[in-house]
Structure prediction request, 229 residues.
Amino acid sequence: MKKIGLVGGISWVSTIDYYRLINEGVNKELGGLQAAKIILNSINFASIQGKGWLHSFEILLKACKELEKAQVDGIALCANTAHMFADDIQQRIQVPLIHGVTATAQEIVSKKLHKVGLLGTKFTMEMDFFKNKLQDYSIKVIIPEEMKEIERIQYILKEELGKGIIKESSKKEFLNYSDQLLGRGAQGIILGCTEIPLLIGPDDFERTPLFDTTQIHSKAIVDFILGLP
Prediction:
């Protein structure tokens, strides 16, 4: 079994889900009392917010370097927004970085879809790092059209879900954003922030494929740990 290093705390709420899903996945494969070998380097999210995501490369790289020194076999960034630096970090570390966006793209391809809606942080929706990775797999990505909607999504993620606050009114808003994307031709919806599954999930949709990046990434990590194809 390989030892995985997790860069967590971004936010701690979703890091809990990563820890649970990875251990559940390993135990499902191996049975008994088997669990994953995990080293968690949990960042103080306030340090990211203080600098701003665009200026947080060194914080994330330092966290990965510390995990390398702990002799992990691979590293995962437990946040979609952090993946804006994933390729640059991979070039500066010696162990594999299990890429959550690549795993998501491969899952979408397996469902034979070619156009999906993306909900996530403002950075994930507006910047190119997520969309370009999916475009490499011939997947078109659409996001909410109105800036006020993007700003509202960002507020809910940062000021509510990032603090563990769940509101029924916010859930209704996210369902509305999803319906709008489906109305514009999206064949599925990417829950592109690790906190969004705290709010909406498969039970809220009858036939729409949902791509929960936390679950998808966690499965890719389990496959890496166990050497599964």
Remarks:
- The beta strands are 3-8, 37-42, 74-77, 115-119, 140-142, 189-191, 210-212.
- The radius of gyration is 17 Å.
